[in-house]
Amino acid sequence: MSGGRAQGSTDIERWDQALAWYINVRDGGNFDFTGPEWQEWCADPENRRIFDNVSRLLSDRRTYGPLRQPTMTELTDDQYDASIPIRQWLTAQAARKARKLPSFVSGWWLLCGGIAIAATLLLFLLYPLWSWRSVSAGEPIYQTRLGELKEVRLSDGSRVVLGGQTMLSVVFCARQRSVKLISGQAWFRVAHNSGWPFIVAAGDGTITAVGTAFVVTRDSNRVVVAVTDGTVEVRTRRVSSPSGRLVEGAGERPSFRPIRVARGQAVAFGDNGSVGSLEPTDTHAATGWTQGRLTFDDQPLRYVIESVNRYSSRHIVVDNRAGALRFSGIVLDHQIDDWLQSLEGIFPVHVEQEKADVQIRMRRPLPAALDPRPKSRP
Fold this sequence. Notes:
The chain is of the alpha+beta class. The protein is built from 11 helices and 20 strands. Strand 8 and strand 9 form a beta hairpin.
């Protein structure tokens, strides 16, 4: 599959070579897409066009439903002799059918036979790739367990670090590189390609980058984007308050202007369409979870608990009043039990630690100045 061979290749040979590259990726999880052989082959625009067509075909196949495997009877009735060209076989079949069938039905059966043979050959050609869930085709799912960190290298050279209990899917086609963060937290380091945008969908918005690095956190009802290098563009069905802070409820107004987030900045948007203002962020703190340090700056305790739960051996539940308390500090993923005990000295809460679960409840009524619940008007 060298580039020199590809220069004089026919379209059929190019398709064979493109499919062979897919098979190499499938059989080798650490396939080197920066290797000279792949780079030389991909440098030919016609090779790349056919490679993209293969990717698009496999990505769109679900639109048309699954292909039906031919029955043994159908295969026997076809009686295709693979030792001769298809055109020669079809000619012989037409002559044979013409002798057996009236003229008004012979053309119909010839057409049906040709379609059946074409479908069968296509099925056998694509079958090795059909069940293969790769980074370049289909919709692969990457997932981590509780407390697990995993680094994934995508086919375009991009790298993704997944935090605990994280799930994302990947679909690459000719127009764009698409990733969906279904749950959890991920640090994306995107390979630069100005003509092939990298788009991450999360919650009610998307994050677009060409070549940069950023962290996306998917909480229960919001998404937080923190940029550690370069710039990204965040688009969402945006609703913001006059002050620009992330809000819920009355006083919201719609806005659809995309937000540009640069290195050292972060923004949050909610599942209800609300979006917060740009906030400064420490790039080292934003990726601290990859080193076992969960860093929080004035965050509601309920979101802190969601992050901690990705690494805790026991599930932690916090009630609504305690969840509204705001926390700043660092939680080490191997000292979560110690941190839970310390909460009783920080907040007026009671931490009930059982074998499988931990309950965090308000210990006593808060002073009016500290009560996070909205005040009722007289």
